[in-house]
Amino acid sequence: MNHTHRLSSEEIATYVKVMSDPTRLLIIKLVSKKEYCVCQFVDMFEMSQPSISQHLKKLKSFGLVEETRRGQWRFYSLNTASDAIGIVHAIMNQISDQDERYIELINKERPVDCG
After folding, report:
1. In the predicted model, is pLDDT for residue 114 greater than 90?
2. Which domain does 48 fall in, by range?
3. Cα Rg of the chain (Å, integer)
4. Higher pLDDT, 49 or 113
């Protein structure tokens, strides 16, 4: 991946700040692997749908995740075209796939059943 766009120190600090929340950080880790529905995050994180939606809204507003609508449901994936993708990958590479909380979330994952 060869990005010629360089970010300013302020831009980098803003992206790092957005990702500094543990829930948002783990959402990014999850969507860096595959697409997830909001309903899956609600179950996995054991949080209310409005709380999960606020985290996703913030990530989307900074261009870190992409949203796809299917009917009334919204699915999220990593925005690989983001200006911050280099920072995202650098941070995600520091989170082990054996991270206790990450494994806990993966183990709670269920197939999409948003009905």
Report:
1. no
2. 9-107
3. 14
4. 49
* pLDDT the model gives residue 4: 53
Instruction: Identify which of 114, 44, 27, 113 has the alpha carbon closest to the alpha carbon of residue 78.
Output: 27
Residue 47 identity (one-letter amino acid): M
Q: State the total domains in the chain.
A: 1
Going through the chain in order, the beta strands assigned E by DSSP cover 36-37, 65-70, 73-78
Query: In whole angstroms, what is the distance from residue 104 CA to residue 108 CA?
Result: 6
Asked, for residue 114, whether it belongs to a domain, the answer is no
Which of the 8 DSSP states describes residue 75?
Answer: E
Give residue 100's Cα distance to chain centre.
17
Q: Please report whether residue 78 resides in a domain.
A: yes
Which two three-digit tokens encode residue 113?
A: 């059943």
CA distance 106 to 53: 19
Gap between the Cα atoms of 11 and 44, Å rounded: 30
Split at pLDDT 50, 70, 90, the class of 71 is confident
Task: Report the candidate in 85, 86, 81, 76 with the shortest Cα–Cα distance to residue 55.
Answer: 76
